[in-house]
Structure formats: structure tokens, C-alpha cells
Amino acid sequence: MQVEDLILISVDDHVVEPPTLFDAHIPAKYKDRAPHIVKGPNGGDLWAFEDGFAPNVGLNAVAGCPPEEYGLDPTEYAQMRPGCYDADERVRDMSAGGVLAGINFPTFPHFCGQLFLRAKDKDLALASVRAYNDWHIDEWAGSHPDRLIPISLPVLWDPELAAEEVRRVAAKGARAVTFSENPTKLGLPSYHTEYWDPFLRACADNNVVVCIHIGSSSSMNITAPDAPPEVMIALTPVNSLMAVTDLVFSGIFKRIPNLQMALSEGGIGWLPYALERADYVYQHHHAWTFTDLGGRLPSQVFYDHIWTCFIDDPVGVKLRDQVGIDKIMWELDYPHSDSTWPHGPEKLFKDLAGVSDADINKITHENAMRAFSFDPFAIRPREKCTVAALRAEAADVDIEPKSMGRRKAEADSGNASLLGSVAATGSSGQ
Amino acid sequence: MQVEDLILISVDDHVVEPPTLFDAHIPAKYKDRAPHIVKGPNGGDLWAFEDGFAPNVGLNAVAGCPPEEYGLDPTEYAQMRPGCYDADERVRDMSAGGVLAGINFPTFPHFCGQLFLRAKDKDLALASVRAYNDWHIDEWAGSHPDRLIPISLPVLWDPELAAEEVRRVAAKGARAVTFSENPTKLGLPSYHTEYWDPFLRACADNNVVVCIHIGSSSSMNITAPDAPPEVMIALTPVNSLMAVTDLVFSGIFKRIPNLQMALSEGGIGWLPYALERADYVYQHHHAWTFTDLGGRLPSQVFYDHIWTCFIDDPVGVKLRDQVGIDKIMWELDYPHSDSTWPHGPEKLFKDLAGVSDADINKITHENAMRAFSFDPFAIRPREKCTVAALRAEAADVDIEPKSMGRRKAEADSGNASLLGSVAATGSSGQ
């Protein structure tokens, strides 16, 4: 197989929501109070909701932007590639980047809708979540059903309402819901209670994968306030490592045997170690802790229930059998700063050296199709889904980085000191 | 090579300090105020110091104890194997376990002397640190110079005094000092300042390795207060992962080119991923962060300056070239609950399947001899250092697990709720 023959489904990209999001979807009675875009006092387009604001942080929309203009300033739509917020342009950028399909996580509500969890008016919040999901499923992903795989927001503050919303969106075709890697850190009951069972059971019963994105606990791992930004960014996979360890020792999968979850942007190269470690600790300690996993080792619980993905992860690919070759997927992370766009296929193909065609197909698209019950070939002939075919369709798209008129970074500009507030919102911008 | 031919140096074991520790070493004026053993109100022998107490937590002294009696209760000396606190018995247990030599980290002062950092009377604290080091170097390790490699406590509250103490103990032959994986979490300046330079420079100048043990930041990674104890224990390597990431992005190694540090009990299987991730993030972000590593990638900084070790880590051994074969060492972790004693050689040998004799020798003893300038063969003929030879010397040692009269664990005994306080002290007992 050559790089141009790859068929690529990215299971973790991001939509920067357009200002018109709620226009067609929020009930009339909430029209004036739905989240809406305002100009920030120091620049940037901000989402206003109740008495707060949610910025589109610069690092969250850097596709096509030169690295010198990366940063944590709030950003205006005019300083982004239209592919960030316009579905047609997104699909053109995907084609230019050789990518067939993608799942787009939310931006301004945070990775799993923490903004609405914090809302004072929960009727307004529920209406906003439903409107968001209708926009995402019907308008954003629905405009390109062969290219965009819908994912829904959860109702974080009520597991019964969350179950109801999962059933509602599943009936409309959504096979993924974004959720928290650690509800405890959001002030909610942990995965070691039965609190979430109604929601998680609804996901399992409706074939909806629970996707937990790094940062969806609104907390990041900070070593020191004066550490360079790279430290926090490099440590983001720790969020997934902690979530996996937490989940495999929970009773959730024993109670809900069909539940499937996915790590989003967590990487994979650390998993063989984490699984060996979990098994070792279980074997050394369960005699006094009485932890009962129903006869399975923690690693087996993982293999049975948790899907994974990576951007560029040579050691993870090398260890693919121990990571679980039938559940590894790929991600592009467009338009974030960790993204390999527009060179995703080439970066990935380097990682895939020596991998069999069968395993390549699993990693690049077959696992994702299976996880999310997604069949693009029913709409688009397979031969039009390859890197080469897609790029040929988008030969006119300009993929060269160019200045977006943002403030250039300067030495000692205080980027590091901004990281505390970023960590607090979970909008880390990787 | 066969298992009985291995020559094993463990770079991470633990001493449970005997009640007589300070008797011969604390100046007369502090005799009444030095840490001393008292009976706890609910059982257990506790160290009393100023107006506080430091227990010997049960999990920290379980060698030979059946797993049903593991737990977090304070423990009495009478409920431990004498090898925990008696140097002659320790060496006999090492021989019975096939282990030539070991480094013994402190217990009651916590992993890097946090107890003395918190002391109100800093003159008393300094006298106690010096007395501890004299006891450890002259009495404990000094009694068996071919078997026990001395490690010293630092003066955590003053980098100049810390430098002075490093020079003092180095003159007495100590080639290791235990320090914090993250001083920030102890309320001290971070590795991103020049605050520690006098201390670290003294270590580099005197060929003293700075050993950072998991838990030496007095903080553990807790997912949820109601998570089973296994979650926190399985996540302890995250402390080392965070420390490595913090350190490789710091300017310390650029300023102090000869500095050598070691991860203690951090494991190794996660390192190839962590290094790839650090390099990826550096390459994606340094244009706007202005982080300057002096021309090296983060991974190269790691390979040049940081030693590692593992207990039982199949994937780490498999990836030994990416971990850094010239700096990987082995550890037994006696008498903690993660220890493989008395079957360390057999457990390790399984991990070593397919590894060349040259690499086996590096991992088992040559790297440790080089790191700590330790030459046991100058005292003890090499042929008497093997697993087989040592075990033959200790054929009379009873290594069968037996009840130590501790409280047996019960389901719902509230072990999980104890973990918060364990995390707070850093006495995690892995």
C-alpha cells in the first residue's frame, strides 16, 4: 500500500461553532438568551451565555496558521481558516488533506458541554444542548453524511435527562456522545458510583460510543506555574491514562456489558505499560482491597470496552497488538495545534512502515467504521475515498500556511502565565 | 545466561528506620528532641517529632506478609520482618532473594525528608538530617559496604545548606541523594528557577546522583475519593512521567551539564511514548513559546541526564533501546507491597527473555555500578555475587509468607477512604 491509497477516517477533529449555530434550532422562547457571539473588549469573538463568556482560544484554530502566530489570545473568525467553522470549507480542507471523514468535537461548550453544566437556568441549558445537537447532527454533519460523523453533547447535570437525550439523538443517527474523562473533577459523582448508569445504559442500548476527550474533566496536569507551556501540552495524555485506570477498576463494565467508550486525543504508546501496570497492581492488591472485576484482568476490561486513537505515535503503532489492533483508530485533530494537517497521510504513513495492509486498514478506517456504525461507502464509492482521489477533488485548495494577522508571539510575553486559566477551562488547545 | 547467574543490584529498596537511629549520631543538645518512637493510641509504632507523628504505614513493610494482611494501618516493629529495620537481617533477606546490593530510601522522614522541611526548629531539623545521614552512611550501609549503597537526605529548605551537606556526605562516600520529583508541590521553588542550582551543582561536582522517588512531591494522582486503592497505586508512575516532562523542558541541564538524576520506582515502559510526545510538542510549539533547550531535543536531554529503573516491566524491557539501555537499572522495592521479593530473580528473568547477555548485565548491575560509582567486586569476589551464590549463603532464611498478626482486610473496611491522607503525606506504600 502507498500513502495515496490510504482511506482515512479521523475520530478526533474540532468544530469552531459558527455564529449562526442556534438560529434555526433554539425554541423561540429562548432565542434572546441562547449563546451568541459578541466582540471581546480586547479583540476576539466570544460566545456570551448568561453572565459569562467563552472565547475561541487561538490554539484551538490554528490550521494553516504559521507557528509564530500560535498563542492563547482569543481569536476572531476572520483570523481563522473558514474550514474551522464552515462545513463545506471543512470538507474541502479534509479533501485537500486526504481525509475521508471526521468526528468534530465541540469548542465553545468545552469538550463535553461543561459550559451548560455551569448554567444557572437549567431549562435554558437543556434547550441549548438539544439545539446544539440538532444543529450538529442535522446541519453540520448532516450536510455531508459521507464525510462528517455526528457526535452529540450530553446533559451533564442529570443522568435520566442524559439518557433521554441519547435516545433522541440516536434515533436521528448519532452513534457517539462526548462525555467527561472524570466527572469527579466537574463536581459530579465519580465512575465508582451507579449514578451514571441510566445514561451509560442508554448509550450501550443504542449503540452510542461514549467518547472521553482529554480536557473533558476541565483539568490539566500542571507541574509548576512557571513551567513552559510545552510541559502541560506534553502531559495531556495523562488525562487519558488516569481515565483508563479509573474506568478499568470501576464496576461500570460489569454492570453494563455492552458499553463501549473511546479515548479521544489520548495517544496509544503508553497503553501497553499502563495495562501491564494495572494488571500487576490488581494481582498484588486485590486480596486486601476486595476489588472484583468479575473474573477479568483490568487489561481485558480495557480490550473489551475501550477504543483508542492517535495522531502521530510511532511506538504505539509498533506495539499495536498490545494496544489492541482491533480498536486503534487515527485522528487528525484539525484545526488544533497538534494537528498534522495538511500532511496527515504522510506523517501517518511514516508510523505505518512495516505494518501489514490488513492492520493499516483497521487503523485508518475499518475500526472507526465499526466503532461508530459508519459506512461512507454506501454513499461514496470506495475508490473515491482514497487520499489520492480526495486530493484530486480539492486541487484548488490553498494549503500553504499564511499569516492570519494575529499577534506574533514574543519572548517573555507571558504565555506561561496564561496556562493556569486555560487549564481551568479545559480549553487547552492541543 | 540462566537465572542463577544473574548479578542483581536493586536501586530502590526501603529502610524502616530502627528506634535507635539517632542514639549515636545526634548532638547531645538535641538528644531529647530528636525523632523518637512512641506507641500510637490505636497501635503501631510512631515516630514523634516536634508536635507531630509519622507512622510506619503497613503497606511500607509487607515483605513476607500474606496479602490478606496488607493495609494502611500503622504497624509495629514486631509485625514486620526484621529485614525491614535490621541491617544484618536485611542483608540475609537480600541473599535469600538473590540480590547482591541495594539502595535504601528513607521511610519516616518521607521519601526526600519532607518531615524535616515542615519542622519549625530548623536548627533541630538540620541536626536531624545530618544525624540521619551519618547513621545511614556509617552505621546502616557502612556495616555492609559490599551490599548497601548509601543514599543521603537533602536539606530541603536551603539550597546552600543542601550543597554543603552534599559535599559533606560525598566526602564520606555517598554517591546518591534523594530529592523531590516536584519541589513546587512541597511549596518550594520549581525546577524552572535557578533556586536549586547551588545544590544541584554540588551534586554534579561531587558525582552524586539526584534520585527522585515517586511520592517525593508528597502528592499522588487521585481520580476520585471513592476509587479503589488500585487506581492510585497503578497511577504512581505518573509522578515520574510528570517529573521527566518537567525536567527535560527546564534549563537545569543546560546550566549544569554534568548533572545526573535518577527516577526511582517510576517504571520504564511509558518512557518511549513520553519522549516521543515531548519531542513532538517541542517541535510543534517552540516557535511561539521560545523554549530553548540548547540545540537538543527533549529526548536527548533525557538520555544524557536521567537514569531509570523498573521492578517488573515487560514492555519496558522490550523497548529497552528507546528507554536508553545504558541507563536502565533494576529494583526490588523491598519491603514494599509492589516488591517481587523473594522471587525477584525469577520475575525479572521472565522479562529478560530474548535479551542479550550484554544487555542483561547492563540492566542487572553494570549500569547501577556506573551510576553510583559502586564496585562491590572490590570487596566480594564476583563469583560470590550471583543469585545462586547468595542464595546458597542464606539457605537457612525462611522466606515463606506467614501471618504477622496484623488486622486482616475486610470488604468495606474503608481502605479507600484512607487514601486521601496517604496521598497527602506521600507515604503511599507501593
Q: Can I get a quick summary?
A:
The structure is a homodimer of 430-residue chains. By secondary structure, chain A is α/β, with parallel strands linked by helices. The first copy, chain A, is 36% helix and 11% strand.
Features:
5-stranded parallel sheet, 3-stranded parallel sheet, homodimer, 430 residues, 16 helices, alpha/beta, TIM Barrel, 36% helix
Structural class assignment of chain A = alpha/beta
CATH topology of chain A: TIM Barrel
Query: What's the CATH C level of chain A?
Result: Alpha Beta
Residue fraction in strands of chain A: 5-15%
What is the correct CATH architecture of chain A? Answer: Alpha-Beta Barrel
Largest sheet, spatial ordering of strands of chain A: 7-8-9-10-11
The largest interface is: A-B, 70 and 70 residues
Outline of chain A: globular
User: How helical, in percent, are the residues of chain A?
Assistant: 25-40%
Taking the sheet with the most strands of chain A, its summary is: 5 strands, parallel
User: Low-confidence parts of chain A, pLDDT < 50 over ≥5 residues?
Assistant: 413-430
